[in-house]
Amino acid sequence: MTDLPLPPDDDLRPEVRWATHTGPDFLALQLPPVPVERGGAAHDAMKTLFTLRGFVPVEQTDDLDLRPANGCGLTRVAPTRAELLLRLGADGASRVPLPDLDRAWLARAVREGQAAVLLVEAAVQPDGTITRDDLRRDVDAGVVLAALVPVADA
Question: Which residues in the chain show pLDDT less than 70?
Answer without folding.
Answer: 1-14
